[in-house]
Amino acid sequence: MAQALKPTFLTFLLSFFALYPLGIYAAVLTSLNQLKQKQYDFVIVGGGTAGSVLANRLSEDSKVSVLIVEAGDTNVGNQNLEVPFLGVTLPGTSVDWNFTTTPQAGLQNRSIPYTRGFVLGGSSSINLLTYNRGSDDVWNRWAQITGDSGWSWNSVEKYYLRSSQLVAPTDGRSTVGFEDPQDHGNGPVQVSIPGFPLPIDNIVLNTAKQLGGRFHFNEDFNSGDFTGIGYMQSTIGGGSRSSGATAYLNPVDTRPNLDVLINTHVTKLIDVNPASHARRGWLSGRNIPAPQPQLTTVELAQTSSGPRVEVTASKEVILSAGVIGTPQILQLSGVGNQADLKAVGIKTIVNLPDVGTNLADHPMLANYFQIQTNDTWDDVLRNNTIFGQTLGEWQQEKQGLFVDSPGNTVGFFKLPTGSSALQGISDPSAGPKSGNTELIFVDGFARFGDLAQPATGHFITVLSAVVSPTSRGTVKLASSDPFVHPLIDPAFLTTNFDIKAMVQAINDAVTLLSAPLWQQTLKPVPFADLANATTDALKADFARRNSVNVNHPVGTAPMSSSSSESGVVDSHLNVKGVSGLRVVDASVFPVIPECHTQALVYIVAERAADLIKTQYNLDC
Ligand SMILES: Cc1cc2nc3c(=O)[nH]c(=O)nc-3n(C[C@H](O)[C@H](O)[C@H](O)COP(=O)(O)OP(=O)(O)OC[C@H]3O[C@@H](n4cnc5c(N)ncnc54)[C@H](O)[C@@H]3O)c2cc1C
Ligand SMILES: *[C@@H]1O[C@H](CO)[C@@H](O)[C@H](O)[C@H]1NC(C)=O
Ligand SMILES: *[C@@H]1O[C@H](CO)[C@@H](O)[C@H](O)[C@H]1NC(C)=O
Ligand SMILES: *[C@@H]1O[C@H](CO)[C@@H](O)[C@H](O)[C@H]1NC(C)=O
Ligand SMILES: *[C@@H]1O[C@H](CO)[C@@H](O)[C@H](O)[C@H]1NC(C)=O
Ligand SMILES: *[C@@H]1O[C@H](CO)[C@@H](O)[C@H](O)[C@H]1NC(C)=O
After folding, report:
1. Which top-rank group of organisms is this from (predicted)?
2. Which tens digit of pLDDT belongs to each residue from 408-450?
3. pLDDT tens readout for residues 547-598
4. Under a CB-based contact definition with an 8 Å cutoff, are residues 220 and 26 in contact?
5. How big is the chain by its Cα radius of gyration, in Å?
């Protein structure tokens, strides 16, 4: 028996090593030539946050074939993606699409960078890791807008629980009173409170406990109530970033029924329904039920002038290219506002005017305070020796400053009653448990704008953001060339509400840092431009000159009820007027949540996977 087995095993070994260099067993395909089939059950466009979830969940059924196509590179082997603290260094590098906004009227006509992940895991591979599922109001509003109770807080709870789990902070300290394990599940994305507490953390948290009211302490934001001040929860496990790629995609990329193709752009979707072509010809105008276009062939290219290859989905194409990529691909495929498409020479297949509209994002501003201590991380950034020691601590033990994203504590606040921001409008937030503004407390000079870190001194940065903005912008094609960046106009700070709310957030930062606990300890003093912004009018000017974005764009292919004329997808995320095409990513958010967005993307993607599995009778 043993004798007989030997040659077989040897043959296996030999064939394994012989074939491996040819890419037969390669987990991830890097070239169009490596595609062995031109038809899959599902083709997922975009290997980002949502795409990674779908690739994992749909390929759980071994009878189903799945292709996921990502424009960027693999995340594996890139240390800067793994070290939480180094997330801030990623914008403007090879893992960023390097988009820029159009000149922003609300920002004194500045154009600002618009960072989006260009790598497996998408923006979850490069974001600043904060993990928020939103208040119960956020989800109940989605259910109300879409007429689908499947989006309510109670209904999506199971998807939240299956997407993430709470793990111990890296330093292993007791977390009692600083998080509530009951609010967490058992999914693959790892979430933890900071693993390297900083000197200002307790001052922030104890100030909240002392002041109460609008500034009350919140033990766990993921409980359903998203107001108050508490510890940041972040997608970090064992000191490393947990992303769509590390949690969902990398662990399954060797499944035989899943192909992961990287370094490849989807340039457009192609209609495979001949009847729908006919309709636009001789049938058009007659009273015949409209056959829907079926956009189930995707066109792929690795460079702008390179060869095009077509791959077809026998069941569905799923667009998970994110809030910029998804409306761009829809418009390149003839799905969008007819007049806009005509302007760039694209023939309209489905006139869906809301594609690329409704872009909403959170504007963010860095407020600097100088403090009386030497114990901040400012010197880590100034001194290569200290930086190297800190990185070494992460590499060898997964401990120290670099196990965390730069902000350890955070607050979400309702505007005070009578706020001038609310003149003439009712509170735009989802409800009583959602804030209007946010403050993130950073123990050093965090550069988010033009002002460079001073050569000396020690600082606190309080990042202020408007989380229930009323400004809405657009993503439109600049060209019919898929390799040309679209025009991105988030319309930051273009409403009275948004600018007044930002001014209130600045005032809240100043108020909090004037509280007794601060004045007894670090004595923060407003620094640079903030020091001179002594009136609300000057603060508004300061905000317009310095605001950037916190990178939470949503809503460029919003969901609405099936019967609604507006919106782009129905509540099951099918594109209206098209068959065989769904959108699953942050584009479908019907309204911007009053929190960071990634956890909501995981939840949307988990529900989408469930809807698809049910529709096609897949094994769970
Ligand atoms: C710098 C930054 C910081 C952030 N900080 C936080 C935070 O702290 N907390 C939080 O909750 N959220 C944060 N976010 C937001 C959060 O990461 C996103 O909301 C979320 O990851 C979006 O998921 P998505 O699936 O919609 O898109 P993405 O994850 O961006 O995925 C889209 C994918 O599609 C690919 N793609 C696009 N076009 C094409 C094409 N034509 N062909 C092939 N592939 C294509 C992209 O390369 C990308 O991989 C941040 C985002 C950024 C950029
Ligand atoms: C973004 O810009 C940087 C700096 O110019 C460049 O190195 C990087 O390759 C760019 N990213 C992409 C995806 O092209
Ligand atoms: C911004 O540009 C518009 C249009 O060109 C112009 O009218 C306006 O004065 C500019 N605003 C500032 C602050 O430069
Ligand atoms: C900070 O360091 C400087 C230079 O070493 C020293 O003079 C100063 O006393 C220190 N300040 C505090 C508050 O420890
Ligand atoms: C950098 O830090 C090291 C270690 O603390 C110290 O010895 C050195 O003097 C610092 N260098 C500068 C330029 O401050
Ligand atoms: C603040 O105002 C003072 C006095 O007008 C001026 O000297 C200083 O340059 C201003 N600082 C900044 C950062 O604008």
Report:
1. Eukaryota
2. 999 999 999 999 999 999 999 999 999 999 999 999 999 998 8
3. 999 999 999 999 999 999 999 999 999 999 999 999 999 999 999 999 999 9
4. no
5. 25
The CB of 383 under 6 Å from ligand 5? The reply is: yes
Could you give the dihedral angle defined by the CA atoms of residues 210, 432, 234 and 166, in that order, rounded to the nearest 10 degrees?
Answer: 100
Burial (0-12, 13-18, 19+ Cβ within 10 Å), 228? buried
At residue 15 the predicted structure's pLDDT band, cuts being 50, 70 and 90, is very low
Confidence (pTM): 0.95
Handedness of CA 277, 558, 598, 545 (dihedral sign): positive
Contact 596, 602 (CB under 8 A): no
158, with CB counted inside 10 A (0-12, 13-18, 19+), is middle
Bridge pairing between strands 189-191 and 309-319: unpaired
> Rounded to the nearest whole angstrom, what is the distance from the C-alpha of residue 376 to the centroid of ligand 4?
12
> What is the pLDDT, as a whole number, of residue 27?
78
Q: From the CA of 199, which ligand is nearest?
A: 4
pLDDT at 497 over 80: yes
User: Residues 6 or more apart from 288 whose CB is under 8 A from it?
Assistant: 279
The rounded Cα 236 to chain-centroid distance in angstroms is 15
Token pair recorded at residue 354: 């809301």
Task: State whether the beta carbon of 92 lies less than 6 angstroms from ligand 2.
Answer: yes
Instruction: Please give the structure tokens belonging to residue 614.
Output: 């049910």
- The residue to mutate among 380, 386, 391, having the most atoms of ligand 5 within 8 angstroms of its beta carbon, is 386
The kind and range of the H/E element at 280 are: helix 274-280
Question: How many whole angstroms from 603 Cα to the centroid of ligand 4?
Answer: 48
pLDDT at site 610? 98
| H or E segment and range at residue 240 | strand 240-241
Residue 284 has pLDDT above 60, yes or no: no
CB of 373 closer than 6 angstroms to any ligand 4 atom: yes
Helix residue ranges, H only, 35-177: 49-58, 79-82, 136-146, 153-163
Pairwise CA distance, residues 97 & 72, whole Å? 9
Listed in sequence order, the residues at least 6 apart from 564 whose beta carbon sits closer than 8 Å to its beta carbon are none
Query: Is residue 165 within 8 Å of residue 184, measured between CB atoms?
Result: yes
Cβ of 167 closer than 6 Å to ligand 5, yes or no, is no
Q: Cα separations (Å) of 472 from 103, 343, 592, 597?
A: 15, 22, 10, 17
Q: What is the CA(463)–ligand 4 centre distance, in A?
A: 26
Q: Which two tokens stand for residue 588?
A: 């479908």
